[in-house]
Amino acid sequence: MRIPCPCCGLRAMAEFTYGGADVTRPAAALPLDPSAAPDADWNDYVYRRDNPAGPHRELWFHAAGCRRWFAVTRDTRTNAFLSEAVA
Amino acid sequence: MSGWRAASGGRIERSRPIEFHFNGRRYVGYQGDTLASALIANGVDLLARSFKYHRPRGLVAYGADEPNALVEVGEGARREPNVKATQVRLVPGLVARSQNCWPTVGFDLMAVNDLIAPLIPSGFYYKTFKWPVAAWPFYERLIRRAAGMGRAPAEPDPDAYETVHRHADCLVIGGGVAGLAAAEAALDHAESLVVVDALDTFGGLGTAEEARIDGQPYGAWVEAVLARLRASGKVTLLPRCTAYGHYDGDQVGLIEEVAGAVRLRRWMIDADRIVLATGAFERPLLFGANDRPGVMLAGAAQAYLNRHAAVPGRRCVLYANHDGAYEAAFDLQRAGVAIAAIVDARATVAEALAARCRTAGIRHLAGHMIAQSRGRRRVTGCVVHPVGRPDATVALTCDLILTSGGWNPAAHLFTHSGGRLRHDARIGALVPDAPSGPGGPPPRMVAAGACAGLFELADCVASGRAAGAGETVGAAPMPSPSGEPPVAPVGTASKQFVDLQNDVTVADLGLAVREGYRSVEHVKRYTTLGMGTDQGKLIGLNGVEIIAAAQGKSAAAIGNSRPRPPFSPVTFGAMAGPFVGDLLSPARTTPMHRWHAAHGAFFANVGSWRRPQFYRRPGESDMDAVVREASNVRRQVGLTDVSTLGKIDLQGPDVARLLDHVYVNGWSTLQPGRCRYGVMLREDGAVMEDGTTTRLSDDRWFMTTTTGNAERILAHLERARQVDLAGLDVTITPVTEQWGAMAIAGPRARLLLGALEPDFAIDNAALPFMSMAEGRLAGIAARVLRVSFSGELAYEIYTASGDAPAMWAALVAAGDAFGLMPYGTEAMMTMRIEKGLFVPGFEADGRTLPDDLGLGRMVSTKKEFVGRRSLGRSAFTAPDRKQLVGLMTVDPTRSIPRGAQIIRYGSASLPAPVPMDGHVTSVAFSPELDRWIALGLVAGGRAALGETRIAASPLTNEMVPVMLCDPVFIDPEGRRLRA
Known about the structure:
The structure holds 2 protein chains of 2 kinds.
Chain A (H helix, E strand, L loop, with lengths): L1 E4 L3 E4 L4 E5 L17 H8 L8 E7 L7 E7 L4 E2 L6
Chain B lengths: L3 E2 L7 E10 L2 E7 L3 H7 L6 E2 L6 E2 L12 E4 L6 E5 L9 E5 L13 H4 L8 H5 L7 H12 L12 E14 L3 H10 L6 E4 L15 E2 L2 E2 H15 L2 E4 L2 E7 L3 E7 L4 E15 L3 E3 L12 E3 H11 L1 E2 L3 E6 L5 H10 L2 E7 L6 H10 L3 E3 L1 E8 L3 E8 L7 E4 L2 E5 L2 E3 L2 H5 L4 E4 L4 E4 L12 E3 L9 H12 L28 E3 L4 E2 H9 L5 H8 L12 H11 L4 H4 L13 H5 L16 H6 L2 E6 L2 E7 L6 H14 L1 E5 L4 E6 L3 H8 L12 E7 L5 E11 L2 E6 L4 H15 L6 E4 L4 E7 L3 H7 L16 E6 L2 E6 L8 E7 L3 H12 L4 E3 L2 H10 L33 H4 L10 E8 L11 E3 L14 E9 L4 E9 L8 E6 L4 E8 L9 H4 L1
Parallel strand pairs in B: 2-8, 9-10, 9-16, 10-13, 16-30, 18-26, 20-21, 20-26, 21-22, 35-45
Antiparallel strand pairs in B: 1-19, 2-3, 4-5, 6-7, 6-8, 11-12, 14-15, 15-16, 17-27, 23-24, 24-25, 28-29, 31-32, 33-34, 35-41, 36-39, 36-40, 37-38, 38-39, 41-44, 42-43, 43-44, 46-49, 46-51, 47-48, 47-50, 48-49, 50-51
Helix pairs in contact in B: 5-6, 5-11, 7-8, 12-14, 18-23
Pfam family, one (chain B): GCV_T
GO molecular function (chain B): sarcosine oxidase activity
Keywords (chain B): Oxidoreductase
């Protein structure tokens, strides 16, 4: 399997580390107050992940290469990368 | 003794005889023979005993589909079990043996199983050896000994293996007509092609010599295509190469037989397009005792004759249900074999074909089936009757029965990574289904030729060209030429073997269905149908149709079982490749490695690093050495190699913001020249890492990480910089390899440092605890951090890697005057346990929060950081969380069992499971306290200091009373650190 790095082009999967689903980190409200960010939002961000049979937006890290983190859409049924990667 | 060698013909080189041994006897074959063809030519027809009933078995097939002829090849360390005789090329001095028989294949004592066969039906082992449950290991040993599938060699493998990774625009698996047509067509679309075939030569097996393609004779066409492929410079042709698996991401694993220094080469090929042109396997027709030596596939007999001039009998009956099979009989007749009859299951056969039989003087029995073979160790005849009239039998005399029930695509690789097979009743075959629905990505694997269910030569060429050109190949195979679906009648005789390798009969499948198994996959597992090393390549549709019929359903309705990798067995050596011994995993060594090795170091594997564990002196035990080294640090001064620490250089105006994000504590206030200890969390709040980061100047920082976390923390920092905080002006550079590092620790460390004549001040005011200085030390450029992992006055000295051995040598030379001794990781661990310092992986085990480790006050409440929000969750603030405590045995002479569970007094008498209060994380003998101590995580531990618990270790049968205490056993005020 080869992965499209936005910096290096198609490279062997062994050069990459998988970074999980591309989820947005909830912004922290300052001053920091645990009650300010609802538990549910944070819970979703930390623990809940969709497990689609189909397109999946996810992060990869080109660890043995340019060290770029990037998001890309992969079809989990075929491992085909569907979109151009974005940094 | 029925097989013989035709006087002419075949592709063997008769001028090059090859001597070989089989079952201790000497035989002669020719260059170009396989073990199978040479055995046929030598008249050897008993090759093996069957797996369960130990019935005599001979050759059935020509290639990877052979179920019977499993042999051991080679001797000593090179002995390889479970090899198919059909896949062994004859080489001088080859030694092969039958397996699964004792004492000999001719006289096998276990053949008694055949007589008691009615007593051991499918599921016999499950039904019989159930009770008592505890006796199963005993039964299993007996069963395994009785079954046995060859013997693995006990010696290390002396051969060399290679692994090659390749990318190709197009990979063509199978170099027959369809594959070659695909490769040629792909030349216009691909820059790199790999074309593989399991045989020595390209061109395939399924095409008659006199056939014509594009107006050229078949052989000339093959040569012309190969010449064009070679001339293109784009194509790698790999004969003797078998694709064994298709994996995620369209990676195909292949094994190439290499003649030379390397025995096998494993290829892992990533291909953008994969053309599967693997041809088809012939389907046998079933009848009673269809496993007797002398029963063979028609196409196999034809291939042995045409390729090797090896003729498997003298008087033959052909049993078939399609026109193509007749050619085998005609070929054999031309070679001098008497054809006793052609038995055709079809009621009507085309007149032209019937006329050919008449012209050839062959008895033609249309609408007939074979009920039963006759003979003992070799076919001597068969009983035939009209389909549907089992009473009107005809007896035929023969020593060879050829069967052909049509062809089934060799589409195994198609299913390995998700593809489905579809039952096509028109051709009586399981063919690759259209792989993905509308809107899905285009399939990368395309079947062509016979593998796609296309059996006419012109269709093979056309489908190959389409597949090679990247076009979608219509998944609509041609109907059989007669237009009628094939018939494969199954009689009522006993011992009709569907799976020859695992001895599964028609009756076994019926029994499984009567016992309630419905799904093909379940019947398969219950009866072991198709679970042998041949993966049931011969079974194909026969099994599906019988299981369907027993349920009164159509074959299409019950689906089919899915073959998985490997397509044919792969030897362990090929999987391991060159990565054995020292190459198993790369070892990282520090710049001082040679010094350590020369000074008695015992090395430990820490991640991929080799680190000195301790330096044992003559007469010392391991423990003595560790105690001496640790004591010496506490009393004088020690030197240890810390080059393995992860080192990261951080530059830019926004470094403090990045550190604020990844560490629980604050960083913007840190002054240049100062170090700070920091702890990193995961987003779920668990402690991931701790380490020291130093501010070298306003915009330049130097981070150290724990040895095992270096790569992970680098990725974590990059992710924070690029994803979470995109836009920060920070440059992150891993410099682990660039810096050698060593620590000196102990009350005399400053004296030692001074002896190296630093050109910078090192007194306590100029270089206090948690500060940094740069300059020259022993004339070498160095960076010195005053940090401590032992609780003593200590300095970490960093130099360029190349200078590190010289710095180390200078310290050793100067250290003599101060009682310097090197110390290893064991002494380091002892001292950090004495100081109550946690280590990721031990105390921080992925569930531990900062407060659990007593670091609650370190956590900033003024800023956001990774994991902060999780710390506020209610379960994370509960008072009964497991907290870091020290543990001392109540009896100071006793040790604490490693990995022990902490339980309360009296709880051992409670019903199991006994409630666990916590567990021991690290144990050491403390030279300073002269007793065993430990760190542990204990529920509500901090509130229970002074209480006693039991360290219970059921594995070592120990119950040791321990007292909970503060985890900092030594110098809790930190006076030594700051001295």
